[in-house]
Amino acid sequence: MRNVFPFIQHSAFHIPHSKKFLFLRFDFTDMNILYQLNDDDCFFPPADRANKDGLLAFGGDLSPQRLVVAYANGIFPWYSEDEPLLWWSLDPRLIIRPGEMRVSKSLRRTIKSGKFDVRIDTNFREVMLHCAETPRKDQDGTWIQDEMVEAYCELHDLGIAHSFETYQDGELVGGLYGVSIGKVFFGESMFHTVTDASKVAFYHLHQFLQEHGFKLIDCQQETEHLMSLGAYSIPRKDFIDELKVLTKEATLAGNWGTNDFEELYLNIQQPEKLRFRAYNMDEDVALSND
Prior knowledge:
Layout: E1 8-15, E2 35-36, E3 55-58, H1 64-72, E4 76-77, E5 86-88, E6 93-96, H2 105-113, E7 117-120, H3 124-133, H4 146-157, E8 161-168, E9 171-181, E10 184-192, H5 197-211, E11 216-220, H6 224-227, E12 232-234, H7 236-246, E13 251-255, E14 260-266, E15 273-278, E16 283-288
Parallel strand pairs: 2-3, 10-11
Antiparallel strand pairs: 1-14, 2-15, 3-5, 4-5, 6-11, 6-12, 7-8, 8-9, 9-10, 13-14, 15-16
Helix pairs in contact: 3-4
């Protein structure tokens, strides 16, 4: 079997085929232990070591392998322009399971009306840029920095990040993007410039994931928008326990829109023993990853 990516163990077989950000200023000396990631590996402290706000670590980079390991372990990057690269794992975690989406009568009418054209994986970068540029209530600025756009576009080129796009009269008016590992889709952000455009994109994502045997959609944190679609919160421990099983299954990598994808097994395993610099203790700390 061909080894497509450096972090892939082996391929199985070929198949033809919003975040609401609060800009915080951190006093690192007044927090629980904050871990500094190592430059010579892509490993993370266990997610349950995050503080009460969900902040776990800082540093590292946005390389494809580090991002894949992060998501598979319930961790994601989230920072503003004048902050270091911060890594989070929230408790509780907002999720929705394929098959559980709540579709209102009005949304169902909109879907059936054909007013929107939905495409998959045809305009990933533009979806990200629209997510970054669309004004949001109670949000001044964006966490989607230029380096983040480039990092996720690289994941998209590798067939691991995907976009669902809603068009009206040929214009991109809504969409979402996220990362797929095993049987989990990790949603990152969504936008709309026309009413219901992002909900329609989410509906088609939900249908695609259900058809392909996905078990979990990570929505990260509570928003009224996602909860209106049936999302609900679970304890982080339960979320991590599910990831340990579901992310070890084959990842549907490739272009989901053209059905040009294959099942790949990603190397997401972390060693049992880890060592990181504890930033606000100024010493190294050994951790057990069990």
